[in-house]
UniProtKB/TrEMBL annotation:
It is found in: Endoplasmic reticulum membrane; Golgi apparatus membrane. The gene is Dsim\GD12102. Keywords: Autocatalytic cleavage, Calcium, Cholesterol metabolism, Endoplasmic reticulum, Glycoprotein, Golgi apparatus, Hydrolase, Lipid metabolism, Membrane, Phosphoprotein, Protease, Serine protease, Signal, Steroid metabolism, Sterol metabolism, Transmembrane, Transmembrane helix, Zymogen. Belongs to the peptidase S8 family. This is Membrane-bound transcription factor site-1 protease. One of its GO terms (molecular function) is serine-type endopeptidase activity. Residues 437-564 form the MBTPS1 third domain. Residues 23-106 form the Membrane-bound transcription factor site-1 protease-like N-terminal domain. InterPro entries: MBTP1_N, MBTPS1_3rd, MBTPS1_4th, Peptidase_S8/S53_dom, Peptidase_S8/S53_dom_sf, Peptidase_S8_His-AS, Peptidase_S8_Ser-AS, Peptidase_S8_subtilisin-like. It is a single-pass type I membrane protein; Single-pass membrane protein. It comes from the Eukaryota.
Amino acid sequence: MNVFTFLFIISAICSLDAFKTAVVPNEFIVHFHSKYLAPVRESYIAAKLLGSNVTNWEIVPRLNVAWQYPSDFDVLRVFDDNESSSAFIIERLLTHPSVKAVVPQRSVRRILNYDPYSNLTYVHRHPQGVLRNRNTNNDRHRQVCSVLHANILWKLGITGKGVKVAIFDTGLTKNHPHFRNVKERTNWTNEKSLDDRVSHGTFVAGVIASSRECLGFAPDADLYIFKVFTNSQVSYTSWFLDAFNYAIYRKINILNLSIGGPDFMDSPFVEKVLELSANNVIMISAAGNDGPLYGTLNNPGDQSDVVGVGGIQFDDKIAKFSSRGMTTWELPFGYGRMGLDIVTYGSQVEGSDVRKGCRRLSGTSVSSPVVAGAAALLISGAFQKMDFINPASLKQVLIESAEKLPHYNMFEQGAGKLNLLKSMQLLLSYKPKITLIPAYLDFTENYMWPYSSQPLYYGSSVAIANVTILNGISVTSQIVGIPKWIPDIENQGQFLQVSTQVSPIVWPWTGWMSIYIAVKKEGDNFEGVCKGSITLVVESFKQSTNETYVTEVDFPLTIKVTPKPPRNKRILWDQYHSLRYPPRYIPRDDLKVKLDPLDWRADHIHTNFKEMYTHLRNVGYYIDVLREPFTCFNASDYGALLIVDPERGFADEEINALQENVYKRGLNVVVFGDWYNTTVMKKIKFFDENTRQWWTPDTGGANIPALNDLLKPFGIAFGDFVGEGHFKLGDHSMYYASGATIIKFPMNPGDILVGTKLNDQGLSIINPKTPSKAAKVDVPIFGMFQTKANSIQSNEEIIGNAESNLAEAIPTDYSTFKNRVLLLRKKERSISFAKSNNHETKNEGRIAVYGDSNCLDSTHLEKACYWLLITFLDFAINSHKSSLLQNLNRISEFHKLERAPLPLRISRSILKSGSQDNTCEQFEWLTPTKRNNVEQRKSSILDVATLENEENEINLMKNLLDEEIAKLLQNNDYLTGMQSADSLMTPIIFLIILSLIVIILFVLFLKRRFIL
């Protein structure tokens, strides 16, 4: 294989599938600002390259039906492997005013986990949680159209007729017996055949529009089949971009997309999806198959202009494989959106097989065509409303009609389960409007987890809600002025303060509003519920009528408030120093999990550290999230700072601030690190798409050199030995997945240092021929340390040379540190300790460190160590040393170990030090106000008259639908009554049988006694 084709493997959304992506050698996508015909595009490229005497290039012919139409990109092939030559060509092209970007051409290969030619009804499931129902006789529960009552709409003549549905997949066999209206099959691949020889595209088409055997939702819909994957499951970025452009030209109504991945920063793809939405193409996409972990939504399903669909089983339980929210685009500085819109059936759903007959598949890309087919059915039943149907309005209808599933929160189910009939009712009565997702925020509803999991209090970190604005009126609009905060005085709303940020433009169809909520000083001792609402005014421009409409939207708040907890119950979680993919190459924390190489779940307490967060809450701790540098919090408020798996470097100001907080304010610190080894990092390098160079990861599992800088004044350091193995701590089974070990630690009486024997995992990666049963190494893995300012050795270079990683004794002179802080405070650049107060404690803080965070991370959790975290916190906050750890203490033994050098940084790492921007969050709190009615410049688009005959048709359809739904409800009531009667008869029969048995035994007893 050419080395330039290797990138990395990523998980992606597709029923039971995975994707491999790679950069195509020497091919680039030249992206233009506008669409031009081919000769014009070529002239722009030639003008820049031939004018610079560059001749080693050609424009790759694209032999598809879109070649004759204007396009906004070309594929450029360079006949030179020299990186500098490619860089020069890119540089020259970017100087043309019509060129927007130049990015590498990418290939995608989808890996299906079943044999497409097999005659088996069932398929092998994806190893990450896709389940199979083995009851082959329970067909009634898998007829998805029947379960969602599509037959009622069919009875009313609603069959999808006239709706254009595009299916981007593996094609469709010609003259397949299941399909009535295949309007067009187009081939965007380099194969000659339009037929589907894989079966995935056929299955998806069948769920949407099959008219025989395994019925689809909209059998009369017009199908436009886009073959974007070859029969060997290969595709290219340019194929998708061409196909997307053609879908816009064809004025497609609904587009079902069954690919995706974690890279929400893949700009050509993301921007083209936005363009589709702006052109009124309703895109429906799968949420992903990376559940049950939180924070695993895939793109484009997580975009606000796309309908993102999760999966449930036929018993209405969320499928284990279905990806959960929140979105992670906004981290670490903000908070994620719901991302997931609705859920529907996606487990063992029946659909068309490649040539004839049916098969069953599971996955969220099965759920996606269920919603796509339902959407086609809905649109065909409301053609009189076509002027009002767009990506936002259809999303509003689907969300408002969804049924909330009990026992599941909004990140698991979005708005709830698809309700086809209620959606039809709402669409028939729909009038354009602006809505919000979520529609409200309520800390008292379990559905609103994680907001419901912890109340607000004075001094806590602000609660953030990221709200999506859906504008069903127009594709483009804007927020007028500043949102207003209207506290409900009767419900203690005056105790809250609110700040907002909004998107300047709402396009296409969607925008956002970030809300920051805090408790005022006056609410310090209040316990209860505070209410109020935020109102924003949106100005929409309707091009079809050339009119402007002004709409006011409310966002109600119901906030649970509690008195400020004591310091020993408060923990501060460091989110600020967590980085992820994208935009950087942050590698996996568990090195043995090779099929999931990227750290892309954001390391948040509400994503992959959710179970740890729940455990801490269950034992009574309150957890705040730090989204800013260590110079920005009041250490006197917190019992412990929890630093887990940090990747971002620590600035000198942060290191100083932490020491001051530990020594003067008694702040305790608990650290969970991760592996770091530069040689291992070079072994897992990859080819960067943008620079076309080989890159090693920006850091290891954690940024150990930066962490050592932070811990240096306390005499603690981690090494670059990568340890792995099972061991026991007392009765607790433990697993060290891929962790660092301690190489420097204070040796004071009473401190604790515990070790175990681990495999040298780093060596096994560097040298794969290493014997699997190589001798284990006895190494220290965690320690607990009481800081003492009066016993620290003197040295003038506490932080001084952060770039030097020499194996020197670690100096910890607090007096020198104090002088350095005074000097830093005299600098012109302000270091903000504004949130700190002057309170100081006589007790210095305590520090606990552990070398592996995988036992807290749910991503690939093998053995949880929540008990150890609680033990560390008990030591740090309450100075309690568990007898177990005291018995395991080997500090005197490890004192004799040879000191190892500190791990080296990779020379090109961009994470050498902390961010240059160490400013703290500043909020502009909204002034409380009273509700005022907005003066409408146009009364409302809701009042636009509908033609009388169209109104009559709509009313007739609504009445017929209401009658059918009423009959269905009566039948359901009857069936429920029958089931109740059956359930009542069962215990009665049981009691009768039991009574007969007792009587018989009693008679036998008497008879025996009489005979005797």
